[in-house]
Design goal:
The chain is built from 4 helices and no strands. It is mainly α. It has a domain at 8-132.
């Protein structure tokens, strides 16, 4: 009876492991597949700084790696299953090697997925912080521009230019021109 309970327990644990692994595979594959178009869209918009764009590109590579490792893991697991069904001992050992390879690929895939999520989170926080800094700088610049008013000349009535009058004053008589001795000689010589 004890062996039957242990066997039932092992089967139950194996079934739970398969269900959990299936859910994990679907979740990782689904999120990675949805992240790729999001990252392409985010990279195509030129509103990010170089550092944010670099982080987004790195996370895109990580998610592409996740999908590639998932495909390789599934292929190794399928080949391992095929080899394990053969009757020869060498084929069964090859099947075990392929299963171990699939499990190693699964571990790497999970780490790449976690890395991709972390890098996307860091890039989003970096973008938010950079936008906040930019908005604060713009606000400070506007306040500085509004507080500084250059001195302006007083605007008075504009009068047209009128040249000063140069008239002979009526109070003073005009001076008579005194004849010079030379002009007197000229006048007398003509008579």
């Amino acid at each position: 009876m004890s062996d039957k309970k242990r066997e039932a327990y092992n089967e139950l644990m194996m079934e739970l492991y398969k269900e959990n692994q299936s859910f994990l595979n679907k979740a990782i594959f689904g999120i990675s597949t949805l992240a790729i178009p999001f990252l392409f869209n985010a990279l195509s918009s030129n509103e990010h700084s170089f550092s944010v764009s670099l982080l987004l590109a790195f996370s895109l590579v990580l998610f592409l790696g996740v999908i590639l490792l998932q495909i390789l893991s599934l292929k190794s697991a399928r080949d391992g299953c095929d080899k394990s069904m053969e009757t020869t001992k060498a084929a069964v050992e090859d099947g075990e090697i392929l299963f171990n390879k699939a499990r190693t690929l699964d571990i790497w895939r999970e780490w790449l997925f976690i890395g991709g999520i972390c890098v996307i989170t860091i890039s989003m926080f970096t973008a938010i912080i950079q936008k906040e800094v930019s908005m604060t700088e713009n606000k400070n610049l506007k306040e500085l521009q509004n507080s500084f008013t250059p001195p302006q000349a007083k605007v008075t009535e504009q009068k047209s230019f009128v040249p000063p009058k140069t008239t002979v004053s009526q109070n003073k008589p005009a001076e008579a021109v005194k004849p010079t001795p030379q002009s007197q000689n000229n006048n007398t010589g003509n008579k």
